[in-house]
Specification:
Elements (H helix, E strand, L loop, with lengths): L3 H12 L11 E6 L17 H15 L9 H10 L7 E4 L2 H9 L7 E7 H5 L4 H10 L6 H7 L3 H6 L7 E4 L6 H5 L2 E6 L6 H7 L4 E6 L1 H14 L3 H4 L3 H11 L31
Antiparallel strand pairs: 1-3, 2-5, 3-6, 4-5
């Protein structure tokens, strides 16, 4: 991409094709501040036999977070854990390309960033029939936690739905706070913890689009987003977001390095390989 206008036109063109009856695009977006960052879950970054740790992480999070009860399903608990930095198989996305671009441009100004888009409607056509059924019945683009809970009451049940082809499912988290709402949050879940979104992207290139955002274009986009109010103050409501916005605003001549790179839409920090999630 050589300019904000070129990228904006490309996003609009990609968003133009939609399923009949839907009033909005079927794309979800994820922004990375460095193109070298990966689409690997925070659970996988624990390394070792991390898949075996997943049920222990979820069980103990539910046990010790008993004062914060998000909803009845394991998917509600996973969303809450992701929001607060628990290592999970989930990745953060957003329905808004502007939100994703915020996290593409809010840090690492001298590095190429990446904006990724996936067609979740076409992606969900590859799901096992038992998972597609609630989506088709509701006429929904993405799952709710209740719909996922109907098809898979726990992670073990979800993993057993895997056939010979691993799959990717997108769901909206519950509105845990203004951060989730303001970021138009979406989460992805892979059909098993050891299968990464990066692998899925490589196997389904026709279902995804990616744009490299060089430093000069980063600066142009950042200025446009700041003028439009797509900043930490809006996306991370509260004192943390205010402090992050002020820190970036008053850093002379640059965008502060080390803030969130962005992927989807939740809270918490996960430095992992130097990348943070969309919301801090």
């Amino acid at each position: 991409m050589s300019s904000w206008r070129e990228l904006d036109d490309a996003i609009c063109e990609a968003s133009g094709s939609r399923r009949p009856g839907l009033a909005h695009s079927t794309l979800v977006f994820r922004g990375l501040a460095k193109s070298s960052f990966s689409h690997v879950s925070s659970l996988a970054r624990l390394e070792g036999d991390y898949a075996a740790l997943e049920p222990h992480l979820v069980r103990n999070f539910r046990k010790y977070a008993h004062r914060a009860i998000p909803g009845p399903t394991v998917w509600d608990w996973l969303a809450l854990g992701q929001h607060h930095g628990l290592p999970t198989r989930l990745l953060d996305w957003t329905f808004s390309p502007l939100v994703a671009l915020h996290f593409t441009t809010a840090s690492w100004p001298e590095e190429d960033g990446t904006l990724l888009a996936v067609d979740c409607d076409r992606t969900h056509r590859l799901l096992p029939e038992s998972l597609r059924a609630p989506l088709e019945r509701e006429g929904a683009l993405v799952f709710t936690t209740e719909m996922l809970g109907e098809a898979a009451r726990d992670l073990a049940s979800f993993d057993r739905l895997t056939t010979d082809q691993p799959f990717l499912a997108f769901f909206e988290p519950p509105s845990l706070d203004e951060r989730v709402v303001n970021q138009s949050s979406v989460l992805s879940a892979t059909s098993r913890p050891t299968f990464q979104v990066e692998q899925w992207l490589g196997e389904h290139p026709r279902l995804c689009l990616g744009w490299t955002v060089p430093p000069r274009v980063k600066a142009e986009i950042r200025e446009r987003l700041d003028q439009a109010g797509v900043t930490e103050r809006m996306l991370l409501p509260g004192l943390d977001g205010l402090a992050a916005w002020l820190r970036r605003y008053y850093t002379p001549g640059t965008i502060e390095q080390g803030e969130a790179d962005g992927g989807g839409s939740m809270g918490g920090r996960d430095r992992g390989q130097g990348e943070g999630r969309m919301s801090a």
